Amino acid sequence: MRVGVSLFLLLAGVAVEVAYGGLSKYRYTVETAKDLPAKEEYDAKYWDKNAFKSLNERLDNYLVTNKAKNLILFLGDGMSIPTITAARIYLGQLDQRAGENAKLSFENFPYTGLSKTYCVDKQVADSACTSTAYLGGVKANYGTLGVRATVTRGNCSLSNDPENHVHSILMWAQEAGKGTGLVTTANITDASPAGGYSHSADRYWQSDRDVVEQNLDPKYCPDIAQQLIRNKPGLDVKVIMGGGRKKFLPTNNKPDSPLGPGERLDGVNLIEEWVQEKKGRNKTAKFVYNRKGLLAKNITSSDFIFGLFQTSDMLYHLEEEANEQPTLEEMTRVAIERLQKEPNGYYLFVEGALIDKAHHKNMAHRALDETVEFSKAIELAVKLTNEEDTLIVVTADHAHTLSMSGYPERGSDILGVTENENKIYTTLAYMNGPSANLYKDIETHDFRKDDFSSDKYVYPSLITLEDETHGGDDVAVYARGPWSHLFTGSLEQHVIPHIMAFAAKIGPGALMDLENENSNSATSLNMSFLTSLRIYLFVTIGLMIIKKL
Ligand SMILES: *[C@@H]1O[C@H](CO)[C@@H](O)[C@H](O)[C@H]1NC(C)=O
Ligand SMILES: *[C@@H]1O[C@H](CO)[C@@H](O)[C@H](O)[C@H]1NC(C)=O
Ligand SMILES: *[C@@H]1O[C@H](CO)[C@@H](O)[C@H](O)[C@H]1NC(C)=O
Ligand SMILES: *[C@@H]1O[C@H](CO)[C@@H](O)[C@H](O)[C@H]1NC(C)=O
Ligand SMILES: *[C@@H]1O[C@H](CO)[C@@H](O)[C@H](O)[C@H]1NC(C)=O
Ligand SMILES: [Zn+2]
C-alpha cells in the first residue's frame, strides 16, 4: 500500500517534471521573492504615498554651495545604464526580494546627469581617452593617456613634448596642498588610474617590457609604472592601491619573495625605489601586498601607503581565492581614513575596474556582482564623510553592449531566462563577444538547461569577438555634496573634473570668479523648513482627498 502510494507520487513527479521541465527554474525567484506580488501594489494609495515620500525627499534637497574640502570620484569602469538597472535587481534578489525597486547606494544621491563619452577620434571610447577626459578635463585620442589629441597613438616623440601634456586633477589638488589617492581593482598601471599620473602615447606601455615588445626603446618611451614612481604627480600620491605588481618588479625578483616574479627587463625594483624615495624625504612609507597587511591597525599613520594586492589584475569578488585580497570597500576605508589626516583635504579616485573586465568576457553575473561591490564602497564613503564639505561623484567611463530585454515577470531571476513568443532566452545578452562562438544555433539552444548560478556563465552574444566591446551610449553621473547640483543635465565627460575643481576652488576652475561666492548659502537656498511645511500640507491634503474618493 505504502509502496504503491510512493510509486504513484514518484511517477506523478516525473510526469510533472517532464511536462514542465526546467520551466520551474526561471520562475524560481518569482515564487520565492518575499515581497512579490506585494499586496499593497494593487492599491493606488500605495503608489501615491510612495510618490509623496519621494517628492518630499526631493523638496528637502538643498543646494550645498560651500567650498568642497574633499573630492572623491568613484568610477565604475564600463558601468553602463543597463548594468546599473540589472545590478540593482541582482542586489535585491541576493536578499530574496523581487529586486526591481532595490537601490544601489549611489541611487540615493540627490543629483544625476548624463555624460557623453566619445573621444576625439572615436565614436565609442576606450578607458584611456576617457580617463584623460574625466581626470584631465581634455578629450583625447583612443588609447592615449594624459596627452592632448595632437598626440597620435604610439607616437613617443609627440607624447614626450611637454606642450602636449594634460595635467590631471591630481596635480591640481596637490598644487593646492591637498592629499591625493588612487584606488583600483585592476593593475594600478591600467588606463583608468594611469590617466591621472602619466603621459603616454599608448595605454599598454605599462612596464618597460611592454615597450620593448613593441620594438620601442623604454629610455625614450617611459613606461607607465616608472612614471607613477618617478614623476609628479605620482611621486606625491599618498595612497596607491590596486593590482599589477609584475609591472614594478624585475624578472629576477627573489624567487622566494611573497611578491612573486616581476616582468621588468631593466632590473629595477620600483617598489623598493618608492620606499627609498619616501625615506629620502624623511617620510614614513608602508608597502603592503595582502589583505592582512592593509588591515594592520596603524597603517593610516604612515605618510604614504602603497598596496599592490595581486601580480596582475585583482580577482573578481566571487572568485574563491579573493578572500586573500582586500575588497574595494576595505581599500576605500583605508584610503579615506588616511586622507582625512590631510589638513587641506584631499582628492581620491576609486575605480571598480572589474565590471568592465567581466563584461568583456560576457560574464554578466560577475559584472553585476562587481557593481554591487562598487556600490558598497560608495556607501562606506558616504558614511565616512560629510555632505557639507565632501563632493562625491559616481560615474562610468563608457558603456558596454549588455542589454536587458524580453518581458520577464516581476521578480524574475535577472540572471535567468524570459519567455516571449514561445521562445525562452536570457534576459541579459550582449551585442558581441567571445560567447557568440559557444551557441551553435542560438535559435534552438535550450537556455532552460543552462546553469545560471555559475558566476562564470557566459551570456549570449550575436557577433563573435575575442573581447566584447564597449558601448557608445551615454553613462550616468550621480553626485552628492558641495556643488553637486551642477552635475545635472547632459554633460560632456571632460567637464567633470572642471566642475569638481570648481567646487574645491582648485585647478583652472580656481581662476573662475563665482559672482555669488559667499552670499547665497545663508539666505535663499536652504529651504528645508519651508519645503517641509509645504510638503506636510501637500501630503495631508492629498491623503484627505484620496480618502474621500
Ligand atoms: C610622430 O609624429 C611626428 C609629427 O607628426 C612625425 O613627424 C613622426 O614621424 C611620428 N613618428 C612616428 C613614429 O610615427
Ligand atoms: C631628514 O632628517 C635628518 C635627521 O633628522 C636630517 O638630517 C635630514 O636633513 C632630513 N632630510 C630631509 C630631506 O629633510
Ligand atoms: C606600526 O606598528 C608596527 C608594530 O607595532 C611598527 O613596527 C610600525 O613602525 C608601526 N608603523 C607606523 C607607521 O607607526
Ligand atoms: C595586468 O598586468 C598583468 C601582468 O603584467 C598582465 O598580464 C595583464 O594583462 C594586465 N591586465 C590588463 C587588463 O592589462
Ligand atoms: C539647512 O537647514 C537645515 C535645517 O534647518 C540645517 O540642519 C542645515 O545645517 C542647513 N544647511 C545649510 C547648508 O545651511
Ligand atoms: Zn574595457
What report would you give on this structure?
By secondary structure, the chain is an alpha/beta fold. It is 34% helix and 15% strand. A hairpin with a 2-residue loop joins strand 11 and strand 12. The protein is globular, with a radius of gyration of 26 Å. The chain binds 2-acetamido-2-deoxy-beta-D-glucopyranose (5 copies) and zinc ion. The site of one 2-acetamido-2-deoxy-beta-D-glucopyranose (NAG) has 2 residues, from loops.
Which descriptor suits the 3D outline? globular
Q: What small molecules does this complex bind?
A: 2-acetamido-2-deoxy-beta-D-glucopyranose, zinc ion
**Helicity, as a percent range:** 25-40%
Kindly report the oligomeric state of this protein.
single chain
**Widest β-sheet, arrangement of strands:** 5-6-4-3-7-1-8-16-2-17
Counting helices, strands and paired strands, the structural category is: alpha/beta
Supply the CATH superfamily name of the largest domain: Alkaline Phosphatase, subunit A
Please tell me the overall pLDDT: 90
